[in-house]
Amino acid sequence: MAKKLFPLDKNYILQQAQLAMEKEMMALILIELKQSFICLFNPLQLRDDTYLQILQQQEFPPNHLSLIYRQLAGIYRFRYGSNQLEILFDGKSHFEKYQEDWALCLKKWLCALGQQEAYVKTMLRMTLLYDNPSRAGFAENRCKSIINEYFGLSIVKRKGDLLMKTGT
């Protein structure tokens, strides 16, 4: 995001809060992804090879998951971002408040997205079931498409500028 406004603009503070929480929220995404997989595809928790791989897998390239996280963060700023700071009476800083709000919203979104089989499959393909970069790249693009469709967004690039439009 190019800083065109004053440094204490809400969107800048919100973006900094989201970036500070990236590792923690990516871990949350994986936890929710595992739960969604179990609910959708293995509710009896039968111990087959895929189930065990998903539960035990720890190593995969985090760049694909990071891009999905940042896309969700951008959608949140687009939907709930304004440049007006609110007055806080509870002693928290705006940074802390935005971190809390973002974490609650992301958890809610992950639960809703986790009910879609296509989202769960593509997220698994690029994280816990990662096997090669080309499949993960394809899954990443498909996942972005699913997320945009879920939120009713159309991202159009014209003359170097990204425009987000909400669908009705």
**Strand/helix succession:** HHHHHHHEE
Please mark out the parts with pLDDT under 50 across 5 or more consecutive residues, or reply none: none
Percent of residues in β-strands: 5-15%
- Average pLDDT over all residues: 87
> Count of DSSP E strands?
2
Strand order of the largest sheet: 1-2
Number of helices: 7
Structural features, described:
This protein has helices at 10-20, 22-41, 49-56, 63-80, 94-113, 117-126, 133-151, and strands spanning 153-158, 161-166. The model has no long low-confidence stretch (mean pLDDT 87). Helices cover 63% and strands 7% of the residues. The chain has seven helices and two strands; from the N terminus they run H-H-H-H-H-H-H-E-E. The protein starts with 9 loop residues before the first helix and ends with a strand. Strands 1-2 form a two-stranded antiparallel ribbon. The chain is globular. With 168 residues, it is mainly alpha-helical.
